[in-house]
Amino acid sequence: MQKIQDGECYVEQTFSRLSCIEGDFSGVEFEDCTFEHCDFSGSTFARGKFIDCTFKHCNLSLMKVPSTRWFGVEFIECKLVGVDWTKADWPAFHLDSELRFKHCILNDASFFGLTLQGLRLDECKCHEVDFREGDFSHSFMTHCDFTNSVFMRTNLQSVDFTESENFNIHVLENKIDNATFSRFAALNLLYSLNIELVD
């Protein structure tokens, strides 16, 4: 049975089917590690690091990440409901933390006020996610469902929203210069201008 010990550094290791529900970890560093079918729901990773790691088919819902650094991490088919990413450690000199989410559930997450340029969301469910006052310029948010997610004073310049839907982005309260939208989905942007559309 694999175990994660506080204060340890793990390099190029694979953790498979590890169940640590509501676990409490401090000062643990992971570099070039892979997590497969692990359950860290409700767990706390404090003052740690995840560098160039991959999570596949993992449950990370309600995970807490106080002062933990994330760089070059990819999540594939993971559940990350209710994660408050604002509590993590995001160094000012890394404008692009190279976070990638593919086929993930990110409902009720918070990215409030974060600078995560180049963020990649592909085919993700992003219901009621808080993107307010963040800088996500040059990101890729394609094939996603943004039902009830909030954008306000958000930098979305040059973001690719191709094939994404159900977003409510006020064009006067957010920066959307050079952003890309699918033709029909772009009609949602007009509703925020209080104008009438006719056939």
Automatic annotation (TrEMBL):
Name of the protein in question: Fluoroquinolone resistance protein
Recorded superkingdom: Bacteria
Regions crossing the membrane: none
SUPFAM superfamilies registered for this protein in UniProt: Pentapeptide repeat-like
Classification via InterPro entries: 5peptide_repeat (IPR001646), PA_immunity-related (IPR052949)
Pfam families, A to Z: Pentapeptide, Pentapeptide_4
Organism field: Oceanisphaera profunda
